[in-house]
Amino acid sequence: MIEFFAARVYYLVSFLLLGVGTYMMIGSPNLVKKVIGMNVFQTGIFLFFIVIAFVEGASPPLLTAPAPYVSPLPHVLILTAIVVGVSLTAVALGLIVRIYDEYGTLNEEAIQKVVGDD
Question: Mind telling me which residue stretches traverse the membrane in this protein (predicted)?
Fold first, then answer.
């Protein structure tokens, strides 16, 4: 049983990151903590995609390389996702700065009371 989990430790870590990120986004009323939770969640997704792309004993997809090959597509997708994640974080933090300037707080519940949405 221990060998089963030891061989899949990266899957467990990725699901742990997904869970922690989800909990931070849902459970915290602070907007900055929600953005941090989103980044933790994204890291879990990145790790999961890299783990499922790993092929034991595989080689790079070159013309002279023997089979089996490693697909470069998941790695390229993760590089693109990292760039999108950094951009999303920058926009979210910029909006948080504007929200703080307008309302004087980062607490989601206090902002909802001021705005009047219940």
Answer: 6-26, 75-97
Please state whether 57 falls in left (phi above 0), alpha (psi between -120 and 50) or beta. Answer: left
Total number of residues shown for the chain? 118
Tell me which fold the domain 2-115 belongs to.
Helix Hairpins (1.10.287)
Sign of dihedral through CA atoms 83, 84, 87, 92?
negative
Domain locations along the chain: 2-115
Q: pLDDT tens digits for 9-67?
A: 999 999 999 999 999 999 999 999 999 999 999 999 999 999 988 888 887 777 666 77
Q: Return the pLDDT at 63.
A: 67
CA atoms within 13 Å, Cβ hemisphere of 80: 7
